[in-house]
Write a structure and sequence with these properties.
Blueprint lengths: L1 H46 L2 H5 L2 E8 L6 E2 L1 H14 L2 E15 L2 E13 L7 E13 L5 E10 L10
Parallel strand pairs: 1-6
Antiparallel strand pairs: 1-2, 3-4, 4-5, 5-6
Length: 164
């Protein structure tokens, strides 16, 4: 019986070590895939390619933007993007940085920070901001990832002046 318990314990340790390494490898691969998608999404945003930008979202996406009401569905995001374009608001720099990735089944949570610069009609200088975001990616049937839920907010309230 002792021999069986020793072998079972050894087998359990071996399985744990290999499954932990596999889990870490899977998380690294997911992070690289998400960073690639973020880069592609940033390029689409900077070029003003709305259709390409929307291709990163599920049809039933929920977006929780900073200083705006919740957006439900891809059409709501499309409408919001069109309204921003009409207002003269244009992103000229966007740099997301993935800080962590955690997976649970078909859902992957990404936490990150961003730096953004944008121009507005009638304003001569670029406006800059930093913030943080949380994105929940959903694995699709074909293995690709799409954004299911997103939220972001700035690091400082825009009406406050910077202290030196």
């Amino acid at each position: 019986m002792k021999n069986f318990i020793s072998k079972f314990t050894l087998l359990s340790v071996v399985i744990f070590v290999f499954s932990s390494a596999s889990y870490a490898q899977g998380e690294r691969e997911l992070r690289l895939e998400i960073e690639k998608l973020n880069s592609e999404m940033s390029k689409a945003m900077l070029s003003g390619d709305t259709e390409k930008s929307l291709s990163f979202y599920t049809k039933d996406v929920i977006s929780l933007p900073n200083y705006e009401p919740m957006l439900n569905g891809i059409e709501a995001i499309k409408k919001s993007n069109e309204e921003m374009k009409k207002s003269g608001w244009k992103v000229v720099e966007f740099n997301p940085t993935t800080l962590s990735v955690m997976s649970c089944g078909e859902m992957i949570t990404e936490i990150g920070k961003f730096e953004i610069a944008f121009s507005m009609e009638g304003v001569k200088t670029l406006m800059r901001d930093t913030g943080k975001y949380l994105t929940i990616w959903e694995k699709q049937k074909d293995g690709s990832l799409k954004i299911k839920i997103e939220t972001w907010n700035t690091d400082k309230y825009p009406a406050t002046e910077e202290k030196e």
